[in-house]
Amino acid sequence: MEQYSLLGRIGEGAHGIVFKAKHIETGEVVALKKVALRKLEEGIPNQALREIKALREIEDNPHDLKPANLLISSTGLLKIADFGLARVFSNDRGRLYSHQVATRWYRAPELLYGARKYDEGVDLWAVGCIFGELLNGSPLFPAENDIEQLCCVLRTLGTPSPKTWPEITELPDYNKISFKEHRPLPPERIVPDTSPDALHLLMRFLVYPSYLRIRAAEALLHPYFFGEPLPAHHSELHIPHRGGRRSRQHQKEFHTEQLLSESLLDPGLVSGYLQGL
């Protein structure tokens, strides 16, 4: 820690506090996570060790994808944060994983059915949930527990069957609970007032069989990204100002050492606002 100077607190979760810091020697700004060690004799928590391992092998992880974990820099660079619920994939096809791998609202249906073997399709489902949330302005599948979460998905996308999802019968929790039959809602009811291309892309993500979900490379070539409005260049992005401060464009600085006549507000700066009153 002596190599860094703390600049402030970024956020706090169940397993630690994240600080913004600067490396003293290089000036690089980084995020540091402080993990609480409740019982020193038990060592470092498994959650923290898993997160460190995930960061070291980031290219082969299913991530905990949700809007709160997606950070956009002032240059438009998207960064994925918080690997506390991430898992590292292995080439060992017989290896079992935990089904508690993502935040509930963005958890793929195979995970909700208790799957212990899965692939990058769980990330693609989460991407679809995030995309739908951006289009809709609210989460697609908000629920308080896993059973309600699965029910919420089924009410929207329809009840799956072995005919539409052959692998469902192999999932550990498939026969543990039954749901009322639901027909899928039309896409335009799931996300109203959305372009056909956006709806088509969304529904390519929200598919029950993991192997049928659209892959990332294919999604990037979808017509949605080539229609109006076109993606903005990073120089056109709105840059939020820290601490909720208003843009400098609409502010005037005042200095006590200046003469009063030199620090008066130019009426032209507010004339547009006064006309609208």
From TrEMBL:
One Gene Ontology CC term in the entry: nucleus
Keyword Mitochondrion: no
Catalytic activity: L-seryl-[protein] + ATP = O-phospho-L-seryl-[protein] + ADP + H(+); L-threonyl-[protein] + ATP = O-phospho-L-threonyl-[protein] + ADP + H(+)
Positions of the Protein kinase domain: 1-225
EC top class, as a word: transferase
E.C. numbers: 2.7.11.22
Keywords, in A-Z order: ATP-binding, Kinase, Nucleotide-binding, Serine/threonine-protein kinase, Transferase
Molecular function per GO: ATP binding; cyclin-dependent protein serine/threonine kinase activity
Database matches in Pfam families: Pkinase
Ligand binding (ATP): 33
UniProt-recorded name of the protein: Cyclin-dependent kinase 20
